[in-house]
Amino acid sequence: MFLTETKRFHFLLLLIILHSEVEQAYAVWPMPQQMSQSTDRYPINPQLLAFSYARDSAAQSGCSVLDAAFERYFNLIFPDFVGGTGLSNIWSEPKPFTVSVKVKNGECDGFPDEGSNESYNLSVSAGQAVLKAESVWGALRGLESFSQLVYQDDYNLYFVNKTEIEDFPRFQFRGLLLDTSRHYLPMPAILKTLGAFHPMTHIYTQSDVKRVIYHARLRGIRVVPEFDSPGHTQSWGKGQPDLLTSCYKGKVPSGTFGPVNPTLSSTYQFLNGLFKEVTSVFPDSYLHLGGDEVDFTCWRSNPNVQAFMAKMGFGSDYTKLESYYMENIVNITAALNKTSIVWQDVFDYRERIPMDTVLEIWKGVPADYRAELGRITLAGYRVLLSAPWYINHISYGQDWRNAYTVQPQNFSGTEQQKKLVIGGEVCMWGEYVDATNLTPRLWPRASAAAERLWSDEEKTSSVDKAFPRLEDFRCTLIRRGIQAEPLFVGHCKHEYSGL
Amino acid sequence: MFLTETKRFHFLLLLIILHSEVEQAYAVWPMPQQMSQSTDRYPINPQLLAFSYARDSAAQSGCSVLDAAFERYFNLIFPDFVGGTGLSNIWSEPKPFTVSVKVKNGECDGFPDEGSNESYNLSVSAGQAVLKAESVWGALRGLESFSQLVYQDDYNLYFVNKTEIEDFPRFQFRGLLLDTSRHYLPMPAILKTLGAFHPMTHIYTQSDVKRVIYHARLRGIRVVPEFDSPGHTQSWGKGQPDLLTSCYKGKVPSGTFGPVNPTLSSTYQFLNGLFKEVTSVFPDSYLHLGGDEVDFTCWRSNPNVQAFMAKMGFGSDYTKLESYYMENIVNITAALNKTSIVWQDVFDYRERIPMDTVLEIWKGVPADYRAELGRITLAGYRVLLSAPWYINHISYGQDWRNAYTVQPQNFSGTEQQKKLVIGGEVCMWGEYVDATNLTPRLWPRASAAAERLWSDEEKTSSVDKAFPRLEDFRCTLIRRGIQAEPLFVGHCKHEYSGL
Predict the structure, then answer these.
(1) Contacts of A185 in chain B (CB under 8 A)
(2) Where is the Glycoside hydrolase family 20 catalytic domain (chains A, B) (predicted)?
(3) Which of A52, A55, B13, B162 fits a 20 to 30 Å CA distance from B104?
């Protein structure tokens, strides 16, 4: 059932799409900082397209990141290519097309980190594309943009338009959180992290984690694990006796357990060992320590915790006990040379935490994340925004528009404060999400946040202008075999065929 | 982010599930009318399980519906079975197990229809299951129940418990609507209907339709096409000149088109031809004629329509014009011996329509579907309920509970009126749904409505009691390769592996 008015609108929209060359017009998602295109277009023959290193590039053949990217993007650009000299060749352009890549910094074996330079320049002209970047990570971003510039006409011939792009990300941290604890996500469905479920079939091995980190690195993606404590730790108690606080009913233990017990030195010995092992497995400089949603009921019930509170002079203020705990574990990770990310609760309780700690904002409605952005940056801390990007929440219709219209730096504060917003993180919590619905719930809705975190805010201020571009990009995702759900009525030239 | 309380609840729930044999306890969805089980269980060796026809069954080997069902259910019960004498055979039970099927009515080549008897009795004891049904359609329902009774223990051996089932559906019409017009659904993703999109790649051929009807028949499913007019017909105008009303802006045509033009005899000639062809392709006795959401703006603007209104004495009441149109097309289908289904709008406008017409209620909130149930049945018409089952609408969390707690006969009316509620239809409209997200949005949410339409309402009045059963049934769907999304935190023994 759909109102006739809207139906008619759609009908007109469909006609417009059919009569214009969308691939050419909408091109790159997220929108590059500077991009100019002309209608001059150059044919590309898949058999004669070659990726190559420029002679003066610091990275050359043998660079693991770019060698793998060349092969990957060839397959992404030409999903139907089977090699050989098929019939289609008769119609194809006999001229070669070269994508020449030059990077200044030849480091190919490292990991992307908070200091990575992801800027690049891309110049497409007759027979060639010239891609220049500071680092291999910027080159990856440029290859992605180039791959989106290539399109097929009605005869399935490939073309690319004359194009100039200068690009860099607006925010350095553009994250996606996958929750592997509420539901186990099989390896094919995940990008990151450790977890524990069924002891035989529902675990990630260290080798699984290495595979995730390896695949992420080749795509210029950082893998940041979160070990959330002292709350959200029920499953930890299964393997570690005395780690959790024993809850009391009156004067006797009730048999249930609460948050991690912050009063025992054994707790910190265990966490020191855990984070040492984590550090040896995850190369990233960041480590997420959680610190959210601690329920004080169990701590309050336990006489040993009560005695500890008295000894420390905390009175009955259990936020001080949580502060004490978080301070201790932040110091453990600092000693391991890791930067801690913690949820905003830790700031709200005013723990004394190192100034390089990153605070992540998750409380949205009815809490005002703008006010929290102001408070945290006023205190001089760096901040990540997640509250408006809890993408596991789903509603009927075009809810990607809400994710798109977020303005991460629109709060009361100085320019200096605005700069402390280092980015955001799309969160896919797992209460109602597993491998069966992860992908259509994630794409293309996460792409809305991706553009907000990469692109210039003024140039991407219109959600209505973004709509046809995102529809087009969603078709690109489908063409790449990603089960991205539709934004509205309509169809793609190549539909999802994974059924 | 999840409250610790709830987390703890989940944790306890998980333990309970791990420590009980859920497959055995929860068994069949939707819940049979009468079912008793004992803890006596019998092993089943896949190599020694045989489906057979009872000697006194009216249908025997060669019955297309049951022959195919025997093979299909073998594969559904033993998804991992590869034949031969594998290692697992060492542990398997050497005794045969026979599923013996007896039907009274041996008709195997027809289609399920509104008069089909779907009742069955199933008795499972040592070494055998005896299934008795009036018709092959009832036998199919019994085979489905038997397939859900078989479970695996921790060593992957198969068992079935001693069980007695007497079963029949509460409602005769238990429908699912798939919308193939807002998005094209590829053949693998659909069960029914015709549509038109891209002229080469986005159409269903007559042979596609036959395949759908063939597959549906073997599963005891009716295929009812909907050709919705006079509104929702923009695409029809593309292929049929003068079918749609030309809208006017002042005294000149605006170039846009509105609903079907009800004033021309050519309109009814075209529809007569269309429905004749439809009748030759779709064997079902029902045909859905739509009749919803007609916007009168365009009719009002057209001087020829205005003249027709005057001539017919309709004044300025355009509901009378719509009545006139619907009356005409209902008469066309009546002449073709088809029963018409129409949306509630047609009743609301008080068309003179044949008493065997079925009215379908789609207006839910803020309209009160209960009051409409009362009005339509008071007028003596049969009614289908869809308003609370618009399953394309999605919200965060366990929205299946809303679908489950619907009471289709809970309205003011006599017993006679209640009987006019012949069932309901789950609707999956396609504005935001296509092949990428159809399955996880449909299952297991549609299963909630399925139980409401099949099972006894008193026995299934508790949504909380249904929860673990539906969780278990969702794991059954996953095991059968259906991408059914999770209800809440937790895991299945066999996870979705279609990635």
Answers:
(1) none
(2) 201-456
(3) B162
Whether B233 contacts B287, CB under 8 Å? no
Q: Is B388 on the interface with A (CB under 8 A)?
A: no
Task: Find residue B130's DSSP bridge partners.
Answer: B100, B123
| CB-CB under 8 Å, A186 with B435 | no
Cβ of A4 within 8 Å of Cβ of B259? The answer is yes
Residue A472 has pLDDT above 80, yes or no: yes
Distance from the Cα of B71 to chain A's closest Cα (Å) equals: 22
Q: How far is A45 from chain B (nearest CA, A)?
A: 25
Q: How many other C-beta atoms lie within 10 A of the C-beta of residue A457?
A: 14
Instruction: Note whether B142 contacts A: Cβ–Cβ < 8 A.
Output: no
Helix (H, G, I), strand (E, B) or coil at A290: strand
- Residues in A closer than 8 angstroms to B290, CB to CB, are none
Give me the helices (H) in A343-444, please: 345-348, 369-378, 400-404, 415-419, 438-442
pLDDT computed for residue B25 by the predictor: 47
Q: List CB contacts of B167: < 8 A, sequence separation 6 or more.
A: B32, B33, B34, B35, B119, B120, B121, B122, B141, B142, B145
pTM: 0.83
* B400 contacts B445 by C-beta, under 8 angstroms: yes
Q: Which of residues 407-436 of A touch B (CB under 8 A)?
A: 429-436
| Chains A–B, number of C-beta pairs less than 8 Å apart | 168
Share of chain B above pLDDT 90, in %: 62
CB B134 within 8 A of CB B140: no
Unique residue bearing structure tokens 């992307």: A112
The candidate with the shortest Cα–Cα distance to B146, out of B109, B113, B101, B79, is: B101
Q: What's the pLDDT score for residue B87?
A: 44
Q: Counting Cβ atoms within 10 Å, is residue A315 exposed (0-12), middle (13-18) or buried (19+)?
A: exposed
The answer, yes or no, to whether residue B292 has pLDDT greater than 50, is yes
Given the residues A71, A277, A293, A495, select the one marked as catalytic: A293
Structure-token match 């749609």, residue found: B244
From its phi and psi, is residue B255 left (phi > 0), alpha (psi between -120 and 50) or beta?
left
Q: How far apart, in whole angstroms, are the C-alpha atoms of residue A120 and residue A35?
A: 12
What are the chain B neighbours of A497 within 8 Å (beta carbons)?
Answer: 186
Find chain B residues with C-beta within 8 A of A402's C-beta. none
Classify residue A134 by its DSSP letter. Answer: S
- The answer to whether B1 contacts A433, with C-beta atoms less than 8 Å apart, is no
Determine the Cα–Cα distance for residues B195 and B179; give it in Å rounded to an integer.
9
Which run of H or E residues covers position B275?
A: helix B265-281
Beta strands in A261-302 (DSSP E): 286-290
How far is residue B376's CA from residue B387's CA, in Å, rounded to a whole number?
14
* CA-based end-to-end distance of chain B: 27
Per-residue pLDDT of B420-476, as tens digits, reads 999 999 898 888 988 888 889 988 998 999 899 999 999 999 999 999 999 988 988
pLDDT of residue B478: 86
Mean pLDDT within A195-201: 48
Closest residue on chain B to A427 (Cα): B1
* A chain contacts of residue B369, beta-carbon cutoff 8 Å: none
Give A269's Cβ-side CA count (13 Å radius).
Answer: 5
Token digits for B37? 């089980």
Q: Tell me which residues of chain A, numbers 285 to 344, contact chain B at a CB-CB cutoff of 8 Å.
A: 292-295, 343
Q: What is the pLDDT of residues A30-75, one digit of tens each?
A: 999 999 999 999 999 999 999 999 999 999 999 999 999 999 899 8
Give residue-wise pLDDT tens across range A265-300.
999 999 999 999 999 989 999 999 999 989 999 999
Answer whether B276 touches A (CB < 8 Å): no
Tell me how far apart the alpha carbons of residues B81 and B83 are, in angstroms, rounded to a whole number.
6
